[in-house]
Design a protein that fits this description.
- By secondary structure, the protein is of the alpha/beta class.
- 36% of the residues lie in helices and 15% in strands.
- It is built from 12 helices and 12 strands.
- A hairpin with a 3-residue loop joins strand 11 and strand 12.
- Helix 4 runs parallel beside helix 5, helix 4 packs across helix 8 and helix 10 packs parallel to helix 12.
- It is globular, with a radius of gyration of 20 Å.
- It binds 4'-deoxy-4'-aminopyridoxal-5'-phosphate.
- 4'-deoxy-4'-aminopyridoxal-5'-phosphate binds next to helix 4.
- 4'-deoxy-4'-aminopyridoxal-5'-phosphate (PMP) binds next to helix 4.
- Aminotransferase that catalyzes the conversion of aromatic amino acids and 2-oxoglutarate into corresponding aromatic oxo acids and L-glutamate.
- It comes from Frondihabitans australicus.
- It holds the Pfam family Aminotran_1_2.
């Protein structure tokens, strides 16, 4: 077929976002850091009663923003809701960066960052992680130039699982010019058990250039409904509201998020089960001889290096879909308890090769 339409060249060559492949429907899907638990019965019940889909949703998500504002002790203007926190990342990139501007982030980190930067017409500045998989915040601060408009800090870092400490983050913020927006991507914050880890909530008052990003996709188990939020200065979030595609947060997503916030005890009890399993799995992998970095999300990083593609196949043959980041390693979500034996069996087989 001829291709006469003129596309932006950087978009024509940009691959779409990819998910873990699931050829076998019986396999455990441990490739997207999802929550293995079914939705809470209370959430299912409100959703069943809320299927009036002939009407548009509340474009401003007022009720959900008010509930979140109360929870975090901020005003509703200081909360923004998007169709997943990935949508808010995109909105803020578009709001703050123009073609030629730079967005600094650690690498490896969340796979969506490079594509979203390109879509915004901006330039990615990727700062290699430390050997332990953590952010090299000194190098990230040094990478800031006159053209830098945004720095993204992802903690716990997807895919390595390592956190940024409060102390590290505060010394980093002291070096960042106030006109540079810092996005603290805390998609996995509810799984953090290390008391030294930074938690954006408590820092917002001190830093007028800080926005904290959270999601209902992970700990709250609503990945399929697409809803995330940001907390930060209202004028910055107003700009995100302006670049957002109107009405993209559905009514059922808003209702499910509000209901979930009423049942956090139950949800966080599940989060506790996931983090305990994570810690047991990490210990078992260390015992097998793997060098697994400190895991503070709902996933583990297995440094399979040049054997990554083969290792992913071994896991697949064992009935586990994991995410391969060749040539560095595999990211494995902490999933159903029934997946554990298969996971450890495949890892034990591989550790001899890697
Ligand atoms: N940030 C990070 C670090 C993530 O890993 C993810 C999801 N994989 C997101 C943001 C986006 O999550 P969502 O759009 O589902 O809220």
């Amino acid at each position: 077929m001829p291709q006469p339409v003129r596309l932006r060249p950087e978009i024509a060559s940009l691959p779409p976002y990819r998910q873990g492949r699931q050829a076998d429907p019986e396999a455990f899907k441990l490739s997207s850091n999802e929550n293995p638990f079914d939705p809470l019965p209370a959430v299912v019940e409100v959703l069943r009663d809320s299927l009036q889909v002939n009407r548009y949703p509340d474009a401003a998500a007022v009720e959900l923003r008010e509930v979140l504002a109360r929870r975090f002790g901020v005003t509703a203007d200081e909360v923004h809701v998007g169709s997943g926190s990935v949508a808010i990342l995109s909105q803020l990139f578009l709001a703050a960066a123009q073609p030629g501007d730079e967005i600094v982030y650690a690498w490896r980190s969340f796979e969506a960052y490079p594509g979203l930067v390109t879509v915004a017409g901006a330039t990615s500045v990727q700062v290699p992680n430390r050997a332990d998989g953590g952010h090299d915040l000194d190098a990230m601060a040094s990478a800031i130039t006159e053209r830098t408009r945004i720095v993204v800090v992802c903690t716990p870092n997807n895919p390595t699982g390592e956190i940024v400490t409060t102390h590290e983050f505060e010394s980093f913020m002291a070096k960042v010019p106030e006109d540079v927006l810092v996005l603290l991507d805390e998609a996995y914050v509810e799984f953090v058990t290390d008391p030294d880890a930074v938690n954006g909530e408590s820092l917002l008052e001190r830093h007028p250039n800080l926005v904290v990003l959270r999601t209902f996709s992970k700990a709250y188990g609503l990945a399929g409904l697409r809803v995330g939020y940001a907390i930060g200065p209202s004028y910055v979030l107003d700009a995100a509201r302006s670049t957002a595609i109107p009405l993209s947060v559905t009514g059922i997503a808003q209702i499910a998020a509000i209901e979930s916030l009423k049942h956090e005890d139950e949800l966080f009890e599940r989060v506790g089960r996931i983090t305990r399993l994570r810690d047991q799995l990490r210990q078992a992998l260390l015992d097998q001889g793997w060098d697994v970095p400190r895991a503070q999300g709902n996933f583990l990083w297995l440094p399979t290096g040049e054997h990554t593609a083969h290792a992913a196949q071994v896991f697949e043959a064992a009935g586990l879909i994991v995410r391969a980041f060749a040539p560095e390693g595999l990211r494995i979500s902490v999933g159903e308890a029934a997946s554990v034996d298969k996971l450890l069996g495949a890892a034990a087989e591989l550790v001899r090769v890697v």
